[in-house]
Amino acid sequence: LAYKETHFATTAASYQEYLCCDAHLWSPLCMSYPSTTQEYLAYKESMADSHEPTRGGRILGCSAAMAGAAVNGYTLCVVSGAVPQITEAFRLSLDEKAAVVSVNVIGAMLGGPLGGAVADSHGRRYGLALASFAFALGAALMMMTPGFYVLLLGRFVAGVGTGLSGVLSPIYLSEVSPPALRGTLTTANEFLLTAGCLLALFVDYSLSHDPEGWRRMLGLAGPPALLLLLVAAAVPESPVWLRSDAERARSARAASTPRATAPSFAPSPPAVAAASPRAARQIGS
């Protein structure tokens, strides 16, 4: 009986250590791990707190995301006033006019799924920077286009930015903003998207009498997009993504590290035979 109690205590302690190693808390000697549920929860909370952005970082990040939504709205709506002048400049047919308008949507169809993949693999901040780059490049191509096909390319690239921003801005806002302001800021993001569209209509009206005004209409999204691209380097990364990325790295490290198999609670037959001849006979039978 004394042997069984000692063996059970030893195997239970080893098994607790094994479970700790298996819970992605592995250390080189597997000796530093939470021994109680309270310590484990404290560890998780400290890990979460270490990734929380500062107040200034939250303000900068949320402002950049909402400004990106405004650029997105401008890019979506500005073409409505530019099409008549573009048609006159390039003598477009009806099908070509339809292509100028619709190719932006095709780019957005590509940018949407791409935004989700980029957000998960490289982070929300990287995705916002990529959307800003697409807006800036698309605006430059459209403003300086020498012909119809370069204009289509610019519209397509800007559409990719539209898809990226439409996916990433709400995700980033919901993960960086304070919980008490999360609904307000997400609503403000949609408001600025609409405000950007309204601004585009005012710009279209103000430049409608200039035969070359369509170039400025389409190119005005470039400077704010470039500014957002620079700001993206300073905004904090989403704490949710940082935690998930840390968990993935820890899981990959644990999977690539050789580990001992879980010890059995049951003593081996030789040990049983040495401790109790009667138990040995039962095993043999």
Automatic annotation (TrEMBL):
<keyword id="KW-1133">Transmembrane helix</keyword>
<feature type="domain" description="Major facilitator superfamily (MFS) profile">
    <location>
        <begin position="61"/>
        <end position="285"/>
    </location>
</feature>
<feature type="region of interest" description="Disordered">
    <location>
        <begin position="252"/>
        <end position="285"/>
    </location>
</feature>
<feature type="transmembrane region" description="Helical">
    <location>
        <begin position="98"/>
        <end position="119"/>
    </location>
</feature>
<dbReference type="InterPro" id="IPR005829">
    <property type="entry name" value="Sugar_transporter_CS"/>
</dbReference>
<dbReference type="InterPro" id="IPR050814">
    <property type="entry name" value="Myo-inositol_Transporter"/>
</dbReference>
<feature type="transmembrane region" description="Helical">
    <location>
        <begin position="125"/>
        <end position="143"/>
    </location>
</feature>
<dbReference type="GO" id="GO:0016020">
    <property type="term" value="C:membrane"/>
</dbReference>
<protein>
    <recommendedName>
        <fullName>Major facilitator superfamily (MFS) profile domain-containing protein</fullName>
    </recommendedName>
</protein>
<feature type="transmembrane region" description="Helical">
    <location>
        <begin position="217"/>
        <end position="235"/>
    </location>
</feature>
<dbReference type="InterPro" id="IPR005828">
    <property type="entry name" value="MFS_sugar_transport-like"/>
</dbReference>
<dbReference type="GO" id="GO:0022857">
    <property type="term" value="F:transmembrane transporter activity"/>
</dbReference>
<dbReference type="Pfam" id="PF00083">
    <property type="entry name" value="Sugar_tr"/>
</dbReference>
<feature type="transmembrane region" description="Helical">
    <location>
        <begin position="150"/>
        <end position="173"/>
    </location>
</feature>
<feature type="transmembrane region" description="Helical">
    <location>
        <begin position="185"/>
        <end position="205"/>
    </location>
</feature>
<keyword id="KW-0812">Transmembrane</keyword>
<keyword id="KW-0813">Transport</keyword>
<keyword id="KW-0472">Membrane</keyword>
<dbReference type="InterPro" id="IPR020846">
    <property type="entry name" value="MFS_dom"/>
</dbReference>
<dbReference type="InterPro" id="IPR036259">
    <property type="entry name" value="MFS_trans_sf"/>
</dbReference>
<comment type="similarity">
    <text>Belongs to the major facilitator superfamily. Sugar transporter (TC 2.A.1.1) family.</text>
</comment>
